[in-house]
UniProtKB/TrEMBL annotation:
Record's keyword terms, sorted: Signal
InterPro entries with a match to the protein in the record: NAGPA
Annotated organism of origin: Arenibacter certesii
Organism placement in taxonomy: Bacteria, Pseudomonadati, Bacteroidota, Flavobacteriia, Flavobacteriales
Pfam family, one: NAGPA
Protein name: Phosphodiester glycosidase domain-containing protein
Source taxon at top rank: Bacteria
Limits of the Phosphodiester glycosidase domain: 109-293
Signal peptide boundaries: 1-22
Length: 296
């Protein structure tokens, strides 16, 4: 009788363990944002009196400080770029070790505008995600890297046209094109906001940088400031809603936090980078990859 009880207890323990382990292995994804919230944000963003400066024939620089977006203060910079390869050269300056400031990369590339790129080794420098440039693979995604931070790619084809790419099941090596910078999470695809993994990286508000393309072939490089009383930052879901409200069809998240930087020719750093813990233009952080926009 005692032996039977022991077997029964062991059986129950195995069932509990199996159910618990199975639940832990499932992807805990958030629900897509409600239409009402998306519509409200779209109305606020579209009705805002944005400061707009035409800094080149192919680039407009827009800025607005919101007092109550997502019930918070938000500082948003938008670089609106003509995506026609006959008008604009999109490039990805990089370093394989050490660090590269967005401003320095932009100046060296004679760019009109620039934003920071993807994730990097904060101790030694160099990219930590897949990166291909001019047909040559420069870097593979590091082992153990969070999958949702490398499920999107900024592709540049042989003609110079950019696109936002979802990671294929076969991996990034199978994506054709001249250059490919991987990052994530993927925010939008074919006009739809995507559900996201439920975790602190996605849910907490931080400075964020994202890039998207519109149906009429405009490139929108967007920086949301954060970590300041004047700018509280965005979650990944909020960043997706912002990109949708601005008119993106496809969009992806880039490196954020202290890395988030927007640069414009003749103005310098135009957002409020947080790396110096001040709400000014001086807190730029060195990164590994930069996305630059230049006149053809």
């Amino acid at each position: 009788m005692k032996i039977m009880r022991r077997y029964l207890l062991l059986y129950l323990l195995l069932i509990v363990c199996f159910v618990g382990c199975s639940q832990d292995n499932q992807l805990d994804q958030s629900e897509p944002p409600k239409a009402e919230e998306v519509n409200t944000v779209s109305e606020i963003i579209s009705s805002a009196e944005w400061s707009v400066k035409k800094v080149a024939d192919n680039v407009n620089w827009k800025y607005f400080h919101f007092d109550a977006l997502f019930s918070s203060k938000q500082s948003i910079t938008v670089l609106e770029v003509n995506g026609n390869p006959e008008k604009t050269i999109v490039d990805i300056p990089n370093v394989e070790s050490g660090f590269l400031k967005t401003s320095d990369a932009a100046i060296n590339n004679r760019a009109v505008a620039a934003i920071n790129g993807s994730y990097f080794d904060t101790k030694n420098g160099g990219s930590t995600v897949f990166f291909k440039k001019a047909g040559e693979i420069k870097n593979e995604t590091r082992s153990g890297f969070n999958w949702y931070r490398e499920n999107a790619g900024l592709g540049i084809d042989a003609a110079g046209k950019i696109s936002i790419i979802r990671k294929p099941a076969s991996g990034w090596r199978d994506v054709e094109g001249e250059s490919l910078l991987v990052s994530g999470p993927l925010l939008m695809m074919d006009g739809e906001i995507l559900s996201q993994d439920d975790n602190k990286f996605n849910n907490n508000r931080h400075p964020r940088t994202a890039i998207g393309v519109t149906a009429d072939n405009r490139i929108l490089a967007v920086v949301v400031d954060g970590r300041a009383s004047q700018a509280q930052g965005a979650s990944v879901e909020e960043m997706a809603i912002i990109m949708e409200a601005l008119g993106c069809r496809d969009a992806m998240n880039l490196d954020g936090g202290g890395s988030s930087t927007a640069w414009v020719k003749n103005y310098g750093v135009v957002n409020y980078p947080s790396d110096n813990k001040k709400f000014d233009h001086e807190g730029e952080r060195g990164v590994a990859t930069v996305i630059t926009f230049s006149n053809k």
